[in-house]
Write a structure and sequence with these properties.
The protein has helices at residues 14-22, 37-48, 74-79, 83-87, 121-142; strands spanning 2-5, 8-11, 26-28, 34-36, 91-93, 96-101, 106-109. It is α+β, with helices and mostly antiparallel strands. This is Squamosa promoter-binding-like protein.
């Protein structure tokens, strides 16, 4: 039995099979040829690219923020906001005072928030409605 690597089939020993099954496993094509699972995934990822389509250096979107986000948590890199500005009560973006919404994972104008809350009114209303609905349903089941 052989493996496909870079378009060619090579023999593998039982030791190789065991070792690679532990580290990702072998898969078999319809024609019976086996290949390393990771090899196929890497080739697919290389064709697709990173998906960002832009710069490789992540930056916080808040004006004048120079935080190095290369070591930031995945969440902060994905939403392009450093940890400090994600929790800040007021930030300036495009000349407007805004706040990062924990529910939407984006910035909104301050007018969309109640007091010092970190979730916008629209998302809080939906959250509270779901809580009332489940509370009402469980309360209605016990009294009846």
């Amino acid at each position: 039995m052989g493996t496909r690597r870079s378009g060619r089939v090579v023999r593998r020993s039982m030791d190789d099979k065991y070792k690679n099954e532990m580290m990702g496993g072998w898969e078999e094509d319809d024609d019976g040829t086996t290949y390393l699972e990771d090899t196929r995934k890497k080739a697919t990822m290389a064709k697709r690219g990173s998906g960002s389509g832009g710069s490789t250096q992540p930056f916080c979107q808040v004006e004048d923020c120079t935080t190095d986000m290369s070591r930031a948590k995945t969440y902060h890199r994905r939403h392009k906001v450093c940890e400090v500005h994600a929790k800040a009560p007021i930030v300036v973006i495009a000349g407007r005072q805004q706040r990062f919404c924990q529910q939407c994972s984006r910035f909104h104008d301050l007018t969309e928030f109640d007091d010092t809350k970190r979730s916008c009114r629209r998302r809080l209303a939906g959250h509270n409605e779901r809580r009332r609905k489940s509370s009402y349903e469980s309360y209605g089941e016990t009294s009846g």
